[in-house]
Amino acid sequence: MPQTHETWRQRLGLIPADHYYREDILSAEIERVFARSWLCVGFVQDLAQPNDFLTFQVGPHSIVVQNCEGVLRAFRNVCSHRFARIQCTRSGNRPLTCPYHGWTYDAAGRPAGIPLNRQNFEFNDADKDALALKAYALETVGHFVFVRMNAEGPDLKTFLGSFYDDLAHVSEACPDRFEHEVLDWSVNWKLGMDNAAEGYHLPMVHSGSFSLILSTDLTLSTDAGHSRYTGKLRDRSRKWWDNVARAIELERGDLYPEYASFLIFPNIIVTFSYGAFLTFQTFEPTGTDSLRLTTTGWLGKNNGRAARDMVADSLRGFTKQVRDEDRDICQVTQAGMRDAPPERPPLLGAMEDRIAEFQRTYMRLMTPTPPAERDMP
Ligand code: FES
Ligand SMILES: [Fe+2]
């Protein structure tokens, strides 16, 4: 059947260009997308000791995750007294004590210790209960600590669907973290996700690096609004890994022996190669045109000898090169996005089908149900 001259319209995505820089859109995303979703805020290894903490930014909101005598808790990082931030660094080890007047919070978020309470406030236990920090839902799977800001919602397992078991598997298969970087890009968070979601750009942007690793023939599967690519490593890459495996006695997981990549909505990208090399990335929005990328690299169990450090060095060099190439092309695209027709979504080919899936999930959450539809029987 002859195609109409409007065929190109069928390849339009759903998210208009202006959603990549508008302030009001970012505010709506924080409330409708991020507050409702389980977000990975960090790693259990970094919260193992009492008083270990980390903070995580969701737009204007700061979340503190604190090890309270062995139990992980998540709170709004705002003191109940006069609203100072309580933990002021990205991570560390210190009690949940406000730096301003020294109010100290317990595992329930109650200000259990108030300096000079008798002279100054005379707060009793009921007052302290009422002044507890706002708590958020927290669950872990494998290495990963997840928080949900909204009080109501599905548990983590329901939210992740089959990716729950995938995250447990890759954690088990890759216990050896060799890289942990936090980077700021001048890019809208969705652009970071779009770029990580597709392999179409590999030959152009990563001609010297990534295109040697991966076959472009990927199989897509989706579940619970998230998506998964599975595919084969190129022979050259498989041989490199076989040599590494011999040299450092690398153990491999059996579920994804070649290559898998998970896009976990809204902002996680996982890649898993050879059943023994994991990268885990989160894209936090820090402004309309800025994101914070947290990226970690993990290896399968190995003998821990000197060769392991050489392998880790070479993987760090490789992931840094790929990341820098991605940052540069994303920043170029962010500039173009601001100059594009505001209402027009991007064009998405078959090799960008994972972006289309991301955009469907996004629009479902971002579009409020019209009152007329809500009232229908
Ligand atoms: S603002 Fe936190 S103790 Fe005063
Ligand atoms: Fe890339």
Question: What's the helix and strand layout?
Answer:
Blueprint: H1 23-34, E1 39-43, E2 52-58, E3 61-68, E4 71-76, E5 91-93, E6 104-105, E7 111-113, H2 117-120, H3 125-130, E8 135-141, E9 144-148, H4 156-160, H5 163-173, E10 176-185, H6 189-197, H7 202-205, E11 219-223, E12 226-231, H8 235-248, E13 259-264, E14 268-273, E15 277-287, E16 290-299, H9 306-337, H10 353-366, H11 371-375
Antiparallel strand pairs: 1-9, 2-3, 2-5, 3-4, 4-8, 6-7, 8-9, 10-16, 11-12, 12-13, 13-14, 14-15, 15-16
Helix pairs in contact: 6-9
Percentage of residues in DSSP E strands: 25-35%
Total of helices: 11
Which residue ranges are poorly predicted, with pLDDT under 50 across at least 5 consecutive positions?
A: none
Relevant CATH superfamily of the largest domain: Naphthalene 1,2-dioxygenase Alpha Subunit, Chain A, domain 1
Class per helix and strand makeup:
alpha+beta
Radius of gyration: 23 Å
Question: Mean pLDDT across all residues, rounded?
Answer: 94
Architecture per CATH nomenclature, i.e. the level-2 architecture of the largest domain: Alpha-Beta Complex
Instruction: State the domain count.
Output: 2
Cα distance spanning the termini: 41 Å
What is the fold-level CATH name, i.e. the topology of the largest domain? Naphthalene 1,2-dioxygenase Alpha Subunit, Chain A, domain 1
Rough shape? globular
Order of helices and strands: HEEEEEEEHHEEHHEHHEEHEEEEHHH
- Ligand catalogue: FE2/S2 (inorganic) cluster, fe (ii) ion
Helix content: 25-40%
Biggest sheet strand line-up: 1-9-8-4-3-2-5
CATH class of the largest domain: Alpha Beta
